[in-house]
Predict the structure.
Amino acid sequence: MSQENRHYVFYILLLLLLGITPVRAGTIQVCPDCDVKSIQHGINIAQERDTLIIKEGVYAEFNILINKPLTLLGQNYPVVDGNEKGEVFRIVSDGVRIEGLFIINVGVSYTSDHAAIRVVRSKDFQIVNNRFENLFFGIFLEKSSHGVVDSNQILGIARDEYNSGNGIHLWYSNNILVKDNNIEGVRDGIYLEFADTIRIRGNQSRKNLRYGLHFMFSNDNIYSDNLFENNGAGVAVMFSKKIRMTGNRFRKNWGPAAYGMLLKEINDAEITGNLFEENTVGINIEGSNRITYRGNNFVSNGWAIRVLGACYSNAFSRNNFLHNSFDLSYNSNVNDNSFEGNYWSSYSGYDLDKNGVGDVPHRPVKLFSYIVNRTPETLILLRSLFMDLIDFSERVSPVFTPDNLVDSQPQMRLIQ
Amino acid sequence: MLKILKYSFYDLMRSRWSYVYFLFYLLLGFVLLFLNNDLSKAVITLMNIIIILVPLIATIFGVMYFYNSREFTELLLAQPLKRSSIFMGQYLGVAGSLTLSLCLGLGLPFLLYGLFKSGAILNFSMLILIGALLTFIFTGLAFNIALSNENRIKGFGYAVLLWLFMAVIYDGLFLLTLIAFEEYPLDTFSLAATVFNPIDLSRILILLKLDISALLGYTGAVFKNFLGTGLGFLISAAALLLWTVLPVWSLSFKAKKKDF
Amino acid sequence: MIQIENIHKQFAKNKVLKGVNLNIPEGGIYAVLGPNGSGKTTLIKCVLGLVIPDEGSISILEQPVKNQWKYREQINYLPQIANFPGNIRVRELIGMIKDLRSKPGDERSLIGLFGLEPFLNKKLANLSGGTKQKVNLVLTFMFDSPVIVLDEPTSGLDPTAMIVLKNLIQKERKAGKTFLITTHIMQFVEEVADQIVYLLEGQVYYTGTLSGLLEKTGQKNLEHAIAHITMEKQNA
């Protein structure tokens, strides 16, 4: 026995030296023609840290329970068909890896949140390279931590909010990396509630019914380089602190209540280098304070930034505002935020001393945006000469717009 | 009619004014491109200018040409020519030469700045198309005014007033109405109100192109149907075409009854 | 040839024609006379279709003229005041009218008759009134049409041109053309007119020969006859 153990250690060392993940001694083949015909059976007979190799085929199983550290590795995307009877996988053990499965037909329920893969109170899980179709919830992380959700394809056909679930759902979870997933057609692409220190990177979340990304009561998170496109209401970040948002793209989120990004009760966040393009509202800000906006591009949005209610000590600098119908809209005439050194394509001043900074301050809030806030139908008069005349007179002597809301250093050239 | 069109056009091509407009547009195009150095941005700025300026130029020039060519018209009227074709020929001559000035004047600078290599070609073609339609509409309206007023000063007065009304006053009244009745559903009203003003219609066509993101923020179902689908574009374009036909129809009607 | 029936025309509140009836058979020269403002030009313009009558009908060559234009191919018209577009040349104008009427025209001999060769390349704005009238005459006489309508053909003409004009009229008359002429020069009427139509206050006061008019008024010459009619009317 000790001899064997020594061999075992030797092999592991050898494999680690070669840089290959150690394939543990126990490997179980699962296929329709094998001895082990079902995944659940495979799990039941497996030892801890064994690998189940699931061959191509259709496995009609649901409520599969993984209660020991295992690796489930699909070959050529074997189909795991839940037949709409309930949850497909439930992980209740640390150190589980699921890779290369094609999970379909998760049961829709109005009483419990069935998921294709649910992780409960577990650590060190890896969910990699799986595909999900016809789902309710995709990946549901419940009170779990230190896991990775990487390169999964989630494709739903959600039609109504009440009977659809979220793509990747994090609840009371922390220290998780969510990267390079592709999520379409669910309720919320990625949903976080009471989830801290999460990193969300390089995901694409499109055509979801509600939000591409939805944050609630989740602090110290970073999300970067994601694409959020064509979602019902864009991205919502609510009631959270210390969020960093960098290099994301928010595009084509259209509709009466759609935003590139909705910030509600967010404090001490950093928003840098993002692109907001062709959204009805680029960023909608409500009751959010001490946020730094730097180096973002706002291109061809209806409203680049809409500020509602009391927002204090926010700083906007070195952003580009290009061809938005409205660059900035306020619903009050008090301002405690600073706008310095941005580039505004609507700036009509000049730069006589050629220092790259406009000699006349820029007033980004148009009077017309107030009128539209009051009577939305007046929007139809956008770009009318009459409105331009009114805006011009307001610009000359502000009455309705905050007097101190100026960019005193408007840039003459696009900020790279 | 073609012969009259030919002579009117020929006449206009020799008049100083066509060159003035051509040079004006040329200058405008170059200055805008020089200042912006960005084709798509220049196109956007142009759109704002075009929907105001083109009607003004077409109105003034239409009235002016009509009064100045009275002799020519009288000479033609005694010839075996159909009345409506005389006026149609002159109308098409004026509108055509103005459109030509517009196309060439703006087209040249944009071509030189590499229009075909940029993505702005579609927006630019739409701009030119709208410019052309507005030219035809307002030349037609100007001809109507001139035909109804023997007095030149009065004719000019009405023409300028027409432009001022369509370009500025109409929207002012429109806005006041919207604010005054803001408790009521105003979707249908505001869409209808735009149809009655060709400048507003052109503006909507441009909005649909440039500001669709903002327009989709509307909550009303009527708006959603109108703006969110191709329907809005089709209806606006159709209404604009109707606006082109209307003055022509009224012109031929008026011309039949007019004494010289 | 030309039938005018019960023509009424009113400009604003001014009733110019009040039921004019006139029948002009083919051939011969008809002079339309009358004091200023009696409606001569308006009547002629009605015939040409430049003015639309409020009431009544006009037919030419048995065709009603209302809203028609083809019949003008049968008419050569000399307008009262030669209003030409100023910025084109005489040669171009002649060419243009020929093009518009799509009819061959014999302008060459007429240009010779009126001595217009030196002016052919001049712009119309730079011509004197008399020269313009000569151009006007060339444009009128260069086509071969059965009806010729002349509104004040003599205005601004020098005696030489006047003789040329009279010869032209006689020549065309011999060719069987029908003339309708308005003028104030009574001597001209006496020399060329076969029949006289006298308009007074928008109605036809007299139609017939010159001698008939003299007889009716008991005057020696046309000038006096007309003065007599006018006086009579005023006294009445």
